[in-house]
Please model this.
Amino acid sequence: MGSTPVSRPRRRLITLLIAVLLLGVTESMIGPYLVLFGAERLRLSALEIGVFLSLSALSGMVASVWLGGRYDRRPGRWPAVLAASLAGTGYLLLLATPPYPLLLLIGVVFLGAGSAVFPQLFALAKSHADGTAAASGSGTPVLRSAWSLAWAIGPLAGGALLAGPGYSGVLAATACGFCLVVAAVLGLDIRPPEVPRPVDAGRDRPLSSRAVALSIAGFALFHVAMFSGAVALPLYVTEVLHGSAGAVGWMFSVCAAAEIPAALALLLLPSRWSRDRVILIGMGLMIVYFALVAAFTGIVALVLIHIARGAAIAVVGALGISHMQDLMPAAPGRATTLFANTATAGSLVSGIAAGGISHALGYRAALVCCAVLSAVAWLLFLLARRQAPVEAGKFVTEPVSHAGRAADNGPMGSDGSGRWR
Model:
């Protein structure tokens, strides 16, 4: 018996939920241990590891932008499948313990592509929402909560593999994880949704739009502060407050645990609450978090304060994606990629920023600077929120019907089945 119109949307959302969960577990399983692999297995120096990670991250940003643009021109599963396949191949190649020049090549060509999978999955969720929760904007918080849950599971799984088969087991499991992501994406039913386009779906802003530029700047500074705080906090707790490494672990565990209910709570927000207002509240929570971390010295209090950090990350992470997609409704691939790349850029800058400020002014001063950065991010997003209505009527593109879009896709949309491959 064929799928009913009700079951197809639900099946799509479940498939995307599985894909996001698999991706999150896979990335978090290798993420905390890749540096250790470079140091212990490949015998690399700290500088060599830093160069490798930075080049991989930069190539990931480039790959994400390219695949995001390709997705908008020809929507389908292939960008996500290509990115996940390249990443899985790259981790298999690491099993051969390559020399450093080859390691850099693997990082740039293969591993960096893995960064593009996350925005591709959320672009698929946006494009193929047809009456599901995702269509009303609540699908993204559900998917984002799955991502948070995955990051609570993955590091533990990676640690168990490291204690057993070692780095070979972690790398092989990571490669298998990306293969499972590919299988999940290939199982996605991606029929074009048979629903009317919303009135504002023809409005799309270019990168030169102030609303887009201010939003990107705000999200980028938010992530710089977030990642910089994660660099400075462990050293602040252990060296200034003389706390234990276990206490630091509890702080980040509480943060990760708080993300899941915070993301799901977004589904219960009253319809009269605008998404932008909630994002401002989330950014405000990050300001409060850094201010309290810099002020308090009790370990128990610092652990509990991380509930605010988890809520802030969940709110901005979930609604930030939807915000960018609303600004660029005709380009879900580029919109999601722009948001994801603000996190990547924040991660790249954070090490230098946190390290430099901590060395010059101390760890507490670094946390205060993170609070200031969060406040600037809040202000930039407030300006973006006020600018968006001003530009609403200026950037208008010709609405494209699903039939016309499929026709423009050539072989991908013209197989006679009405499906996007």
In short: The longest helix spans residues 210-240. The chain is about 75% helix and 0% strand. The radius of gyration is 21 Å.
